[in-house]
Amino acid sequence: MATKKPQRSPAEIEDIILRKIFLVSFAETAKNEPTVVYLELTAAEILSEGRPLVLSRDTMERVLIDRLSGDFPSVDPPFPYLVGCYRRACEESKKVASMKDPSVRSEIESAIKQARRLIASYCRIHVGNPEMFMPTGQAGASATSELLSMIFSEVSTPVDGFAGNSLGGGLSCPPGFIEEFFRDGDEESLEPVLNDLFEKLRQSVAKVSALGNFQQPLRALLLLVSFPKCAKALVNHPRWIPKETYLLIGEGRMIEIASILGAFLHVSALPDHKEFKSIPDVGQQCFSESSNRRPADLLSSFTTIKTVMNILYDGMGEVSLTLLKNVDTRERVLEYLAEVIKRNSSRSGMQVDPFSCASSGMFVNLSSVMLRLCEPFLDGTAAKREKIDPKYLFYNSRLDFRQLTAMHASSEEVTAWIENENHGKTDKVLDSQEATSSGSNSGTSILQVKPLKSCTKKEKYSFICECFFMTARVLNLGFMKAISDFKHLAQELARCEEDLSSFKTMREQGASPQLEADIKRLEKVIEILSQDRLCYEAQILRDGALLQRALSFYRLVIIWLVDLVGGFKMPLPSTCPMEFACIPEHFVDDAMDLLILTSRIPKALEGFVLDDFLNFIIMFMASPSYIKNPYLRAKMVEVLNCWMQQRSSSSGFSASASLFEGHQLSLDYLVRNLLKLYVDIEFTGSHTQFFDKFTIRHNIAELLEYLWDVPSHRNAWRQIAREEEKGVYLNFLNFLINDSIYLLDESLNKILELKEIEAEMANSAEWERRPAQEREERMRLFHSRENIVRFDMRLANEDVGMLAFTSEQIPAPFLLPEMVERVASMLNYFLLQLAGPQRRSLSVKDPEKYEFKPKQLLKQIAKIYVHIARGDKDNIFPVAISKDGRSYNEKLFASAADILWKIGEDGRVIEEFIQLGHKAKAAASEAMDAEINLGEIPEEFMDPIQYELMKDPVILPSSRVTVDRVVIQRHLLSDNTDPFNRSHLTQDMLIPDTELKQRIDEFIRSRRGGHVAVKPTNDVTDMVE
């Protein structure tokens, strides 16, 4: 019978287990156990103290110190040894769990737990003081590097190693080690460890692009900030907001390359300056020779970039949220965000210095992170909107908003208002200029300074408030700036491709070494620009979730702005609240730019409700007393233009019918405000206002033409024409006529220039003898003129088309005394160009290429003549036609009618057109007779502007000059100033000169019985068909 195995005491079990954990022995170790260290001196000391030679909780710290301090050959260095001890402690814990005796099990578990705490403590000591336990003269791997490597291993995933750039791979992390290492340490001992750790973490992503391994460092950062002490150490790190400076590197770029979060936010697919470029090169790796790649390959690259960038966004969003939830770190996070914004305020400029400012990649990433932080309040409930305090703009201690262009208030007005607020004064009223119905900006609107809820400076604002305003700034400097950069990049690419096409065309006519060099240079430039464009597209335009988050934020912005003026209702209050007037203009400008972009991206607006945006646009696009910048109000029309049915359907957005036809605000105010803006935009205050207005009016005209086909909007249009016949509607027609004349005249002159260059190029022998540089310049001029003609003709066609359909149903305004002669002169001029002797000189090789449609134009001109004549009950239109001394010719109507028959115009229209020509001829004859009857007219009866006999003389109040009422009314349609001294003038300021009118009437009566009219001879050259 076998003898019973003697039972070990708890002390013996503890000794055995602790020796296994620490790999030490108090007796000389057998040769087959080289990893176990014989602590001879330690054993002797214990015996000399009269204590039993066993390893216990009381002696294990002394043993551990002796093991770490001793010079033992062929053993692990301190850090791997300590990690191994912790791992063995975990393994022993599992074994102990199966012990049957609960009291012994509990005692041993307590010993192992104490051992683990001790090991973790000495790990912290060693990592913080790596020389402490290293033998003299011996250098090993940095303990912090080993710790970081172990953290990387802890957070690694199987996919990290696919690209062959997985981090870590050294020591594996024992279960619970990281938690115990960081959780139980005191802040003082952890500080040097974490400072070094965070710096190495920053370095691990410093030059990494979206295709590099940033994910392991990001997961490591997430793991670290989950421990409150680590989070606190991070925000107190010297590189949280770095203060150091480098030669030639500005503070904006510095916070990106030197701060810990900046290094992570630098990870991007967007191009950057070569000095700061990350690897792998995303453009080169994903989009080189993109024109030769299969669509499926490009799509795969787009998907990859979008996926990895969203991993970064989510990770950095989680890091930020974790730090913001911690009361010990929240303030430092907000300080960091404010510092990034302040140091990079110059990113809002047209040209950004890459050495002074952080990259677009960093700011797009930060934009996405901020949008994630805003998500809880993007639903825009009233309770959450109330927490967004407009006083933050003036009283917050983080950001200065006063240097930004405000919606309407000047910086002086803002300063005065704040001073009044602080002193409790509320009676000041600020005057501002509002464009009048003629668009001359000479009217007046009021910015009323009314008190806010509190006049005292507020020290603390809610997180919702701070996050809202910071996000608006970050988006302006980041996401929206990147979109602007993308547009400019695309334009530059298009210009280079056009130049390349021109060079290749020139090469066909004769190559030269310089030309070949230019072609190669352009091909290289185009390749780089194409890669950059696709990188922008991949990270921004293809990320539907990012676009929708940004849209949701800007919807909150406009709802909040509307709250400041009393909600979605019209008309707007007569006075603009200063809270609204002081809002930075870019809040609305960025919203409009984003709407334009997303409206042109297939399915980007799918499922997104646009009603609030539409109502906002209708409310403010014709309200210069609220939004001063005319270009911003014009941009609102561009948004609506994108939503028109014929355009939106091509981008997958099909909600325009319900937008324009199903909203009462739209039905009541859309046409009215478009007409008003059409007038207001005549004077923008910019040195380029003359040319800018054509592009803006092009968008308005397209939208008006679209709305004309909607019955409810057409009825509103008719009503406006009746109500505003002498107001904004007459101004609208006046500018429509002005533009039509200018655009057609410019287009026809440029067509003659094009024909001249075409003739030069057609003479190949002479053309090839010219120097290459001269040929290149002429080719550039040719393409430039082509673009101008194409644009001007498109606008001229639109304007004439609008005159055609409005004159059919609303002819009355065209027949007003101040308008009828202008209309007649315009139509006569067009008729002369299209049916007169010089029309054959306007033939070009491909008229459709320039949108030059002479047949269509002539048909429309004829219809406008006929439409106005149908509404002419008093036969004033033929008289106006015949009075035009510049273009009218009685035979021109017959010549035009012949052409109209040949091009297939409706017979009834042609007959009425011919009849109108006969009436004009008769009116001309009568006018000649009347002029002969009047004889010599006294100078004082003649209008000084037109030099015609006045019918209704009026005195101008400032210059005291007497003019004919019709003439000055016509002038005031375009310019609200006295033509003789430029002082302000409106129609209601005119003073009737009754005494002079009586004398003129008497003069006319006295001459009526005079001469019999003699039919004048006609010396006008016959028209060439």
Taken as a percent bin, the fraction of beta residues is: under 5%
The largest pleated sheet is described as:
3 strands, mixed
Secondary structure: number of strands: 8
Rg (C-alpha, Å): 41 Å
The span between the termini is 137 Å
- Low-confidence runs of at least 5 consecutive residues: 425-456, 1010-1025
Mean pLDDT: 84
**Fraction of residues in helix:** 55-70%
Strand order of the largest sheet: 3-4-5
Tally the helices: what do you get? 42
- Specify the structural class: mainly alpha
What coarse outline follows from CA principal-axis ratios?
Answer: elongated
List keywords for this structure.
1025 residues; mainly alpha; elongated; three-stranded antiparallel sheet; single chain; 61% helix; 42 helices
Describe this structure as you would to a colleague.
- Strand 3 (429-434) and strand 4 (443-448) form a beta hairpin.
- This protein is an all-alpha fold.
- Helix content is 61%, strand content 3%.
- The strands form 3 sheets. It has a 3-stranded mixed beta sheet with strand order 3-4-5.
Question: Can you lay out the helices and strands and say which pair or pack?
Answer:
Layout: H1 10-22, E1 24-25, E2 37-38, H2 40-48, H3 60-69, H4 78-96, H5 102-128, H6 143-155, H7 177-183, H8 187-205, H9 215-225, H10 228-235, H11 251-258, H12 260-266, H13 282-287, H14 295-325, H15 330-343, H16 360-374, H17 382-385, H18 392-395, H19 411-423, E3 429-434, E4 443-448, H20 463-477, H21 479-509, H22 513-541, H23 544-564, E5 575-577, H24 578-581, H25 586-599, H26 611-620, H27 630-642, H28 645-648, H29 656-661, H30 664-680, H31 689-708, H32 711-723, H33 728-762, H34 764-769, H35 772-809, H36 817-835, H37 854-870, H38 876-883, H39 890-902, H40 907-934, E6 953-955, E7 962-964, H41 965-972, E8 991-992, H42 994-1007
Parallel strand pairs: 1-2, 4-5
Antiparallel strand pairs: 3-4, 6-7, 6-8
